[in-house]
Amino acid sequence: MSAPVIILITTLVITAIGIVVGAGLVFTGKKFHVPVDERETEVRECLPGNNCGACGFAGCDAAAAAIVAGDAPVNVCPVGGSPVAEKIGGIMGSDATFVERNIAFVRCKGACEASGLQGNYVGIHDCRSAALAGINLKNCDYGCMGLGSCVSVCPQGAIKLVDGVAVVNRKLCVACGLCVKTCPKGLIELIPESKFVAVQCMNRDKGPQVRKVCSAGCIGCTLCTRQCEHDAIHMDGNLAKITYENCTQCGKCAAKCPAGVITPPCPAKKEA
């Protein structure tokens, strides 16, 4: 056979194979097609798209699918808060319970001046690695290591190191919880956005021991508990702890704290 004939036959065979394969794909697609609920797309568009996993699902796509399937409430997204929950509630035809936005809070006030350094650290700037190696930079074993693991994982750039302690920018924080999971000391927690009054310490030792390692630590004096009229602050061993559901942000505990370890209320709340 001549070359043109061979080329023609080859072309026809390839075309025929393409048609058969294409038909097979179309048939398979229709045979195993899983209909997608239009609401899933609408719900996904309402979600912020951080894919942070703070809702407990792999990402916003998974969260949207779970909401539509009835496996998650309409207010499952802590980042979007009530505004997003209301939109999703409208799509799903259900009321959205008010969900207050949370903010990451670092429970340590032990800056370098307050807690002091044990020496000059020249290793990897990662708190987790240092913790695994049994290294503690400051005198207080409970305090912020100041190596910035939380800073590096924050997708919003909401955390900075200030004099050896992690500080959260409340306006930028979306409460994804990555910093909470990353901190090897368990110093970071998520608290309601409206709550400014908080105990900025995690040292559970007795007062004299705390004073030896940090001038800004809770000494367990219990003065704060005696000021609260709403049963919102108690002693957890030697450490003061606030129950945010009861706290009215009056600031009396912060004003009485001799160590200044309880953050005062915001100016607007204080004036009210």
Explain what the structure shows.
Residues 268-272 have low confidence and may be disordered. Helix 2 (38-46) packs antiparallel against helix 4 (81-92). The protein is built from 12 helices and 6 strands. The protein is 38% helix and 10% strand. It is elongated and about 100 Å long. With 272 residues, it is of the alpha+beta class. The chain starts with a helix and ends with a helix. It has helices spanning 3-31, 38-46, 60-69, 81-92, 112-115, 127-132, 149-153, 178-182, 207-213, 223-227, 252-256, 267-271; strands at residues 102-106, 159-162, 165-168, 188-192, 233-236, 239-242. The strands form 3 sheets. Strands 1-4 form a two-stranded antiparallel sheet. Strands 2-3 form a two-stranded antiparallel sheet. A two-stranded antiparallel sheet has the order 5-6. The protein has 3 domains: 38-92, 3-methyladenine DNA Glycosylase II, Chain A, domain 3 (Orthogonal Bundle); 104-193, Alpha-Beta Plaits (2-Layer Sandwich); 196-272, 2-Layer Sandwich (Alpha-Beta Plaits).
